[in-house]
Design goal:
The structure is a single chain. The protein is α/β, with parallel strands linked by helices. The protein contains three helices and ten strands, in the order E-E-H-E-H-H-E-E-E-E-E-E-E. It has helices at about 20-40, 105-110, 110-115, and strands spanning about 10, 20, 90-95, 125-130, 130-135, 140, 145-150, 155-160, 175, 185. It has a four-stranded parallel sheet. Strands 1-2 form a two-stranded antiparallel sheet. It folds into two domains: about 5-50, no CATH class; about 90-185, no CATH class.
Length: about 190
């Protein structure tokens, strides 16, 4: 070693040669990255957790199963999903101005058999109404036993209509109640 030089300890290389740390840094870095990114993805039962890192318009390919604990957005970009890939709550229908199961609460309650089956004390149902003003015209929201209706907040979800009855007390209204059913978060 000459005066002013720093001694560098040689490291073994894959081919049996020995080299300087400075020259092998790239090799060690690549090995580290390989272990970090490739090892968790190999083998059966490997898990991959991605948190707050997928942004932009890139593509991602996944072979296997992926589950999510939360999802944000409309899902309009999801393609090639097998039937039943996205599970929704059972015995629940959503009314929304767009993107819901129905856009009218009277229509949703009129079709409760298709989304609720036969409601009972052991199989209750819920009609969830998202924010908006729903003018149902001359129709009536006819509640059914064991089907609760839940709005998104007073003065946030409003149902209006022009239902009239020629008698007093009126026999119909914009909303007709039922036994064993509740209304939540509606004015």
């Amino acid at each position: 070693m000459r005066k002013g030089e720093t001694q560098v300890h040689p490291l073994p290389l894959p081919n049996g040669e020995r080299g300087r740390v400075r020259g092998n840094f790239k090799y060690l870095w690549l090995v580290f990255l390989g272990l970090l990114f490739l090892m968790p993805l190999s083998g059966d039962g490997a898990d991959l957790t991605i948190s707050n890192v997928i942004t932009g318009n890139g593509n991602m390919t996944l072979n296997g199963t992926m589950s999510a604990t939360s999802f944000t957005g409309s899902g309009s970009g999801l393609t090639n999903l097998p039937a039943g890939a996205i599970a929704f709550y059972g015995n629940v229908a959503v009314v929304a101005p767009s993107g819901g199961d129905y856009d009218n609460p009277a229509t949703a309650m009129g079709a409760y058999g298709s989304w609720c089956g036969t409601p009972s004390a052991t199989t209750p149902c819920l009609l969830k109404i998202m924010p908006g003003v729903y003018d149902i015209g001359a129709f009536t929201v006819v509640m059914q036993p064991y089907i609760d209706i839940e709005g998104s907040g007073q003065n946030v979800t409003v149902i209006t209509g022009t239902v009239g009855s020629g008698s007093w007390p009126p026999t119909n209204g914009v909303l007709n109640g039922a036994n064993n059913a509740e209304i939540h978060f509606l004015p």
